[in-house]
Structure formats: structure tokens, C-alpha cells
Automatic annotation (TrEMBL):
GO BP terms: regulation of DNA-templated transcription
Keyword terms of this UniProt record: DNA-binding, Transcription, Transcription regulation
Keyword tRNA processing: no
Coiled coil: none
HTH luxR-type domain location: 28-93
Protein name: Response regulator protein
Alphabetical list of PANTHER family matching this protein: DNA-BINDING TRANSCRIPTIONAL ACTIVATOR DEVR_DOSR (PTHR44688)
SUPFAM superfamilies referenced in this protein's UniProt entry, alphabetically: C-terminal effector domain of the bipartite response regulators
Molecular function per GO: DNA binding
Taxonomic superkingdom: Bacteria
Pfam families for the chain: GerE
Organism: Caballeronia humi
Amino acid sequence: MSKVAAGGVYVSLAMAERFAQSLNEPIEALPHQRLSDREFEVLRRICAGETVTEIGEALCVSSKTISTYKARILEKMQMPHEAALVRYAVRRTPYAVRRTPQIIRR
């Protein structure tokens, strides 16, 4: 009681136990953290405005392969279309749309 009267905070034993248990619960990954390194590179290039063909040429794979990566990225990140991917990346970091810097993986 004296702690609360002095401006402190009271935490019941039950609340303290729930808080301690919550520290052990897994933290859900952000959508872009679910991507493989290659998928992440494709996402970065899409956000930089490169076409499927340009990305394929830069990564030495076919444009069909890049289209497959793009479909997987949309599925893993649960985004309905490419514009949603770009919007997500722009909101995550101001560097997403530039060609040189990359989206920061946190």
C-alpha cells in the first residue's frame, strides 16, 4: 500500500504471472520476414519499379521464374496485388522505392 501511495504501481500475483507467460509466447513475424532471401530481393526490385523481365535479367533467371516468385510473395505476405506490396514497403521504410538501398530486414 505504501508503494501505491507513493505513486508506484501495484501488480497482482496473477497479473505478474500472465505477463511472465506472455514473454515466452512466440512473436508473429512481419509479412516481409516470411520471405526467402531470393523472394526478398525480388520484392525489393519490384518496389524499385523494375519489370519482371528486368528482374529476371538482373538475377539471371527467366521472367516466368520471377512471376512465380512474385506469386509466392503475394501469397506469403497475404497481399491482393503488386500495388499493395509497394504500399507496404513504402510504409515500412523510406528506402523501399530507391534502387540502391534495400528494405531493412528487422
